[in-house]
Amino acid sequence: MRGSEFLDKMEHIAPEFIEEAEEKQKRRKNPWIKWVAAAACICIIAVAVSSVDFYEPPQEPETSDPGEGPPNLIVDGIRYLISPHADSFFLELPEGFVYAGETDTGGFEDCPYYINPDMPEWIFVYHEVRTNGEVDASGTIVPAEPHNAYVRYVDERLRGAGLVCVDGEYYISMWSAKPYGDYPDVSAEYYDLMETKYGIRIEGEPPEGFVLIGTTEFSGHDSVPKGALASNEGEFEIYINPDNPEVIYVSTFWYTCTKEEKIQTKHEGFDVYIRYDCPFA
Hints:
Layout: H1 15-27, E1 33-37, E2 40-45, E3 72-75, E4 78-82, E5 89-90, E6 98-105, E7 108-115, E8 122-135, E9 141-155, E10 163-166, E11 169-173, H2 188-198, E12 201-203, E13 211-215, E14 217-218, E15 229-231, E16 237-240, E17 247-256, E18 265-275
């Protein structure tokens, strides 16, 4: 599991506000709640921390019942959910993000949150976490002593979306493309047409006419990949048909274990990615 770079933005926080936050923390009872996402269990305790009020938020953020899934908040009508990835916790505020106010999330109150006008798909919320972002061999997040961190929350339209960028053109995995809901990625008609024509995953070699164009660079989880060849899920070989680039094939493998097989069987093949009019590009 890849980590994320810690960037220094702590000079924006004045000492008098930090002292005030410490006094508030002493008086506050810290509740906690468990939630499960992507096979990871993260326990969060809210800690209110004040910061320099140098950026006005677009509007007062809305909150939702903590029983409605993972911690989340709504800003300008967009719901942001806590990232399920282990590399979403930062000890220092990432560069470009500025204080925008306080919010309630996950059943906790008065959590400072930070936005970046150049990256509206992310919001960072400062609260206590019980992990260092490390994972074990099974991919489960390893618990750690409680400590404060800036936690990445992701636009629900981007969260979980497998994206590949090929020379500025975007493709989305058929596994994650949603043709339904309030924010469909593609139309149901388009999705059904592509599934009928290409399927979702194939085993073995790519179809005739598809050629290897290279291996993607990993742009980071929850990101919008950019460049000649990039993916927000990892490093994969990409195959495309130059005469008809409406889909790409992305190398993958998976395991099955049926009664007939009795033991795990590894399969190698390709996931199908279809054209995507990426709203975050």
